[in-house]
Amino acid sequence: MKSIKAFRLAVGAVVVATSMTAWSQTSETASAPGTSAAAASSSAAPATGRKANRALRRQVYSAISKSKEISAGNISVVAKDGAVTLSGTVTDASQIGKVAEIAKGVPGVTSVTNKLIVEKPLGGM
């Protein structure tokens, strides 16, 4: 019984040590020996990460909501590394293209996937 507990403790310690090693590794691999100068200069690319994605999403949504003819309440914006996906509904078919053009005009947006659809009012044809 003691050997089983000791074995579990040893396995647990190895798992913790491995997790801590993986967690403590940084993303500074570009400065590691043997990397090319081109890889080190890739920092000119747009910022990535959750914070940058949230900031870009807010900027796109803000730009859309500034347009008076577009109701942005039913539009969802998802941003990931400069790629923006628009989904939801608009009240008129002409607004679909306008929303995509507004999103493309936001600095940092590299591509726009437009999944907007026209919302048909209930009872109306």
From TrEMBL:
Keywords, ordered alphabetically: Signal
Biased composition (Low complexity): 26-49
PANTHER family: BON DOMAIN-CONTAINING PROTEIN
Protein name according to UniProt: BON domain-containing protein
Region listing for Disordered, in residue ranges: 25-51
Residue ranges occupied by any BON domain in the UniProt entry: 52-120
Taxonomy, superkingdom: Bacteria
Residues of the signal peptide: 1-24
InterPro entries: BON_dom, Lipoprotein_DolP, Transpt-assoc_nodulatn_dom_bac
